[in-house]
């Protein structure tokens, strides 16, 4: 799911600061602070000058061997960092505070001049002490500190520090605003000092074996992939089951377009796929090649009963035949016809608009081929979602898991609960949280920013209908009972409003917290107030209200709500001191009706009680419940509906196959969502300048996604390493405890996975452009593994097996096939497919280059052969790279997008001799 660096739940109770200052960005103040600005001697203009002239520099000093870590926090691990403050103007007054997001909370800070406190979550507050003598122009004041765990990326340092003074409007410190690289379009952080020491700054322990992905490391990784554009000729992503070229027949030109013969097929079912062909240059025309839509006998049925690993579904099956005179697409459903057109588009070379004569017979590997997008942490626009749906359809993905509520935001308008979006959809500096949520994730003090926002009811209906036209199901997700702070604070604001209006009954209708609860807990994101109380009937009233209103939007869109993802997150330690929960447990223990009673023995079972109860509520409404695997694993299977969906997000290197097998063996619809390969908010390469969180892996490029063996999770131990670049072992044999109870073991015969899903969490991803960078082109490799089972994948061993680097199941022959098929895939991307993303306006990641200087000559390569490479000597102009060339180091190297317009991030080289 969504841990932010550590895979273990933290239970640290964080102290809160006594906050004071203006209540919101409009200058409202808390009681007793009205004259503080005059007492401090700061005017709004002076605060603005101070903010404009204050230079902030964030420096990570070390992640390895740090001394003085708090042994009680983060398992005694920490990093050391410093923040320098240098003002260009004089500021002697002390009536101000700096608020900023610090993703890994401070364990110990060293400063005589500042006090530092945690406000909530990642929001921190810095204030001057009596020892602070003010800022003088050019003088630097430094805050040194130790923080929890590690900071291994520039992206950890959040932007938009802001100044607050009582009675004044908060002001963002200009030097902490994000900039944008003019070549790549990526966010840059001018306030972060570059990492320069790989051993101390980019390693997280003395045994860390991860290599910083400089140009030399990338050159070695790319070296075995040849430049062979001919491999792309009959290649389609995702790979079909069978492609048979027609001998002795020349290419078929689509330059004059296509003439569509629908044969009673409703045009709306294939309109989106036809529109994509038109964007590629193949429009409809009376003089074009005829495309016939014809029935496919026996399609729409599964080839096997049950859900055995590797079983293929016939839903979406199609047959494509291309001849000089006509193109026939045979299918039994709208998905099959659309996928046939998608494969035709995949064959098209946009330069020549020619395709070879051939036959394709195809059907998908998994029925669930999904992409998850988090718009809760930072909002992403409807326009982005529609672009994503277009590309999901182009590559035969069929499920959009839309995560619209979490701690940091509620993003869907709900009829009758306006506060969810009036308050919960935006973040600003309102310490009362009457008008917005507190700033988090570097959002700054103002609500009017791109990270705030929501989908109106009309927006959501449009998304549903747009998805349905592309044979994609939208699965809404509003995370509960943990990760629910946006809902809790919104309903608290509602309650205050109605109480003030003299409506106490209405004020309590959707109460989500027990006011007498004295529980002290902390979530992984360091919130102590983000878990709704599962012992209150009003909580269930709220959840049902939300579900019913979302179901109504689906009804209005003509797309019944089939799955609802409840998240199933909880916060460890919540509810233990809640009188409402003590009463519920006690009352349940005394129940004489064991058929109806939930057999609650302690508050430890309350998380399971909530999930079980909501799953049954959904079942009664004809909706399948879905949740993340950790929360789902706490439930009692006999109290759950027989059919539920579980997203398995456990890391394979740390035993992630065990829970996946346990839940698949229950007969649940188990969807693989493993972080080290399916989290697309992780970096592409191991480089501190690459955006993305990295608690599961620091390198998840397209080749890594391509290499995934989903039907045999444990077998990936033969080809992958853990987060520190070290080999690991995956034991898939039967394991029993001392009492003979099963702890883990292999899949049962006839059981398997429903599919796979890519994840995009957005804590560090603020803009649509950055999200597109993170999703593409990895989404294409997600589609490849979801649709096509490669012949190099290790067959599953139902008797159980132990997998490691020497176990030998992943044979040399399999490895050679994988390498050969990657060469085909890489050349298809580089010489043909990325160009299609350009035409669709997708700002995919242009890769960083591999390069070396050997005996004075530059040699360079790229992960996707066919993309252009440029180099620049010091003080010179960018030059195209066409092959080994004499250069004078140091120099910079970069890659061009397929259309030659955008550039990727450049890397600097120095000479390396043989």
Automatic annotation (TrEMBL):
Its EC number is 3.2.1.52. GO terms for biological process: carbohydrate metabolic process; glycosaminoglycan metabolic process. The active site is at 570 (proton donor). SUPFAM superfamilies: (Trans)glycosidases, beta-N-acetylhexosaminidase-like domain, Carbohydrate-binding domain, E set domains. One of its GO terms (molecular function) is polysaccharide binding. Keywords: Glycosidase, Hydrolase, Signal. It catalyses: Hydrolysis of terminal non-reducing N-acetyl-D-hexosamine residues in N-acetyl-beta-D-hexosaminides. GO terms for cellular component: membrane. Residues 52-217 form the Chitobiase/beta-hexosaminidases N-terminal domain. CDD domains: E_set_Chitobiase_C (cd02847), GH20_Sm-chitobiase-like (cd06569). Residues 1-18 form the signal peptide. Gene3D superfamilies: 2.60.40.290, Chitobiase/beta-hexosaminidase domain 2-like (3.30.379.10), Glycosidases (3.20.20.80), Immunoglobulins (2.60.40.10). The keyword Cell membrane does not apply. Pfam families: CHB_HEX, CHB_HEX_C, Glyco_hydro_20, Glyco_hydro_20b. The keyword Signal applies. Belongs to the glycosyl hydrolase 20 family. This is beta-N-acetylhexosaminidase. The lineage of its organism: Bacteria, Pseudomonadati, Pseudomonadota, Gammaproteobacteria, Alteromonadales.
């Amino acid at each position: 799911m969504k841990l932010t660096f550590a895979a273990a739940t933290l239970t640290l109770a964080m102290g809160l600061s006594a906050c004071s200052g203006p209540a919101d960005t409009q200058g409202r103040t808390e009681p007793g602070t009205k004259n503080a600005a005059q007492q401090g001697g700061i005017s709004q203009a002076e605060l603005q000058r101070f903010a404009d002239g204050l230079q902030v520099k964030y420096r990570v000093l070390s992640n390895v061997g740090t001394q003085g870590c708090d042994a009680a926090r983060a398992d005694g691990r920490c990093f050391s960092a410093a923040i320098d403050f240098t003002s260009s103007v004089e500021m002697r007054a002390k009536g101000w505070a700096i608020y900023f997001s610090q993703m890994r909370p401070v364990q110990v800070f060293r400063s005589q001049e500042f006090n530092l406190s945690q406000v909530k979550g990642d929001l921190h507050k810095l204030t001057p002490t009596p020892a602070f003598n003010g800022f003088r122009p050019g003088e630097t004041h430094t805050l040194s500190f130790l923080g929890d765990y590690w900071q291994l990326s520039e992206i950890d340092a959040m932007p938009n520090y802001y100044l607050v003074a009582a009675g004044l409007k908060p002001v963002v410190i200009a030097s902490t605003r994000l900039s944008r690289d003019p070549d790549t379009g990526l966010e840059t952080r001018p306030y972060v000092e570059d990492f320069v020491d790989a051993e101390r700054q980019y390693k997280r322990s003395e045994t860390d074996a991860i290599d910083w992905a400089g140009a030399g490391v990338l050159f070695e990784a790319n070296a075995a992939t040849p430049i062979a554009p001919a491999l792309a000729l009959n290649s389609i992503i995702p790979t079909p089951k069978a492609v048979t070229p027609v001998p002795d027949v020349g290419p078929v030109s689509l330059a004059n377009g296509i003439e569509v013969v629908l044969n009673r097929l409703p045009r709306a079912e294939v309109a989106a796929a036809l529109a994509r062909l038109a964007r590629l240059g193949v429009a409809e025309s009376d003089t074009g090649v005829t495309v016939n839509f014809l029935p496919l006998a026996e399609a729409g049925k599964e080839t096997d009963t049950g859900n055995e690993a590797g079983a293929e579904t016939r839903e979406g099956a199609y047959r494509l035949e291309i001849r000089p005179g006509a193109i026939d697409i045979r299918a039994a459903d709208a998905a099959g016809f659309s996928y046939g057109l998608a494969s035709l588009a995949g064959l098209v070379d946009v330069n020549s608009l020619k395709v070879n004569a051939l036959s394709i017979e195809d059907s998908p590997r998994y029925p669930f081929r999904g992409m998850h997008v988090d718009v809760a942490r930072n909002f992403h626009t409807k326009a982005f979602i529609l672009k994503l749906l277009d590309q999901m359809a182009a590559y035969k993905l069929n499920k959009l898991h839309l995560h619209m509520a979490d701690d940091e935001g509620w993003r869907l308008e709900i009829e009758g609960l306006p506060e969810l979006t009036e308050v919960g959809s935006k973040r600003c500096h309102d310490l009362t949280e009457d008008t917005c949520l507190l700033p988090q994730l570097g959002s700054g003090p103002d609500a009017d920013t791109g990270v705030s926002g929501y989908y109106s009811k009309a927006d959501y209906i449009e998304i549903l209908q747009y998805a349905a036209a592309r044979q994609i199901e939208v699965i809404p997700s509003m995370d509960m009972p943990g990760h629910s702070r946006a809902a809790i604070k919104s309903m608290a604001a509602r309650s205050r409003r109605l109480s003030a209006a003299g409506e106490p009954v209405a004020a309590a209708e959707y109460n989500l917290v027990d006011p007498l609860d004295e529980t002290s807990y902390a979530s992984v994101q360091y919130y102590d107030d983000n878990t709704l109380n599962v012992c209150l009937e009003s909580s269930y009233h709220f959840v049902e209200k939300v579900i019913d209103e979302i179901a109504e939007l689906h009804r209005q869109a003509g797309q019944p709500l089939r799955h609802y993802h409840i998240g199933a997150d909880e916060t460890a330690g919540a509810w233990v001191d809640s009188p409402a929960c003590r009463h519920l447990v006690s009352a349940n223990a005394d129940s004489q009706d064991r058929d109806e009673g939930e057999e609650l023995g302690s508050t430890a079972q309350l998380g399971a009680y909530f999930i079980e109860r909501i799953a049954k509520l959904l079942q009664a409404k004809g909706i399948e419940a879905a949740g993340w695997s950790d929360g789902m694993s706490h439930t009692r299977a006999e109290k759950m509906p027989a059919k539920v969906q579980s997203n398995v997000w456990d890391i394979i290197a740390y035993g992630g196959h065990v829970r996946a097998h346990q839940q698949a063996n229950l007969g649940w619809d188990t969807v693989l969502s493993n972080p080290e390969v399916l989290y697309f908010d992780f970096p592409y390469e191991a480089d501190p300048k690459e955006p993305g969180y990295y608690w599961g892996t620091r390198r998840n490029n397209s080749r890594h996604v391509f290499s995934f063996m989903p039907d045999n999770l444990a077998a990936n131990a033969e080809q992958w390493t853990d987060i520190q670049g070290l080999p690991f072992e995956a034991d898939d044999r039967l394991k029993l405890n001392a009492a003979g109870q099963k702890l883990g073991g292999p899949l049962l015969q006839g059981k398997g996975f429903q599919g796979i899903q890519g994840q995009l969490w957005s804590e560090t991803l603020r803009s649509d452009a950055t999200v597109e960078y993170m999703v593409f082109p990895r989404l294409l490799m997600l589609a490849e593994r979801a649709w096509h089972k490669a012949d190099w994948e290790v067959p599953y061993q139902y008797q159980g097996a132990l997998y490691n680097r020497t176990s030998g199941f992943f044979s040399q022959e399999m490895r050679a096939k994988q390498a050969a098929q990657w060469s085909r895939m890489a050349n298809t991307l580089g010489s043909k497919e990325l160009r299609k993303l350009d035409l669709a306006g997708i700002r995919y990641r242009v890769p960083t280059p591999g390069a070396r200087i050997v005996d004075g000559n530059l040699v360079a390569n790229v992960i996707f052969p066919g993309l252009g490479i440029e180099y620049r000597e010091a003080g010179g102009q960018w030059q195209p790279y066409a092959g080994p060339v004499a250069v004078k180091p140091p120099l910079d190297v970069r890659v061009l997008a397929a259309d030659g317009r955008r550039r990727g991030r450049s890397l600097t080289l120095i000479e390396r001799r043989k």
